[in-house]
Amino acid sequence: MKKLTTLFLAALMTVSVALPASAAVDIKKQHISSVPKMAYKNGIGKPQVIVLHETANNNASIENEVSYMSRNWQNAFVHAFVSDKRAIEIADTNYSAWGAGPEANKIGIHVELVRKGNFKQAYNNWLDTAVYYAKQYKIPMRFNAGKSGFVTHAYVTNHWGGTSHQDPVAWLKQNGVSMGQLEKDLKAKYNKGTSVDVSTPPVTHTPAPNVPSNLKVGAKVKVLASAKTYASGQRIPQFIKGRNYTIVQTKAERVRLKEINSWVYNRDVEVLKAPVVVVKPKPNYKKPNRQYAEKGIYTANTTVAIKYSPFVRANQVARLTPGESVHYRRVAFSDGYVWVQYMRSIGRLAWACAGQASADNSKNADKYGTFK
Q1: CATH (residue range 2-192)
Q2: Domain ranges (residues) in the chain
Q3: CA distances (Å), 287 to each of 62, 255, 315, 333, in order?
Q4: Which of 10, 70, 102, 352 counts the highest number of beta carbons within 10 A?
């Protein structure tokens, strides 16, 4: 348990928010066990800044915020939440988090101010907690002045990119705290009293890459619909999501995908379980063994080939990926496979390989998806 003890002057004429004369914040460690442990840019236990956030949710308690993040950390997570009653650390501050874009994530400890409750006390506790971490890791007293000291999420957005949030500016202003006042309050805390519990010093051992075993070169992955930005900080276009790619390089927290030559965070990809169907050459036929008209919807459950004629020897022109559907109008049995014909978006008929035919070409013996 870390304890923060802060002695503050009862009357400080420059402070627009009247802070309590003294405050103590218990930082409860409630770490989410599944979050990845990734080293900071300078190594484990070597953060450079404290990133100041607020939750932007008037109705959520600190327990609500922690519970939500424990279920959704794959999208983003911070190190600690602070309310009017307590501080809860949900991720080890010796390792980085995903709280404010790639540049800030590599160097920052992220601390969230919870809106619900008494603002003055929550604000005071938030300052205590931020200053505690700063002293724990020997981060200097600077404010919104580059890559050391304290920075707001808004400062990160405006100067480093990779994120679009402007907190905690509006919420603090709404409660009578300007950015100039925030800097003064931080300096007062930093210079006049927050003690540091040295019972849990930062670790300094060499970081080990935290790459999941199934994220390896050659693996086929899908970019998740929830993915927001590349590792570079640029927004991921919608058409990139839900499609399949090949990993050609891995790092601790990201992978490079061959088809788009871009780095994507590990949390934003999913390894495909179903193998890509490889259609092996078989004897050529002048026409399909059997074909007939039939209308329906075919949805692939694995990656299948699309060709302009239903033969193995024909060139592949595209592919269907798991979950993609087509409205087909005809079925053919050819070269030992079942094919369905549909109209492509470019206005040309094509055939998708939809399963393996039985030996007598009477049925689809091994379907590569579902039919409706």
Answers
A1: 3.40.80.10
A2: 2-192, 220-271, 290-371
A3: 68, 44, 16, 10
A4: 352
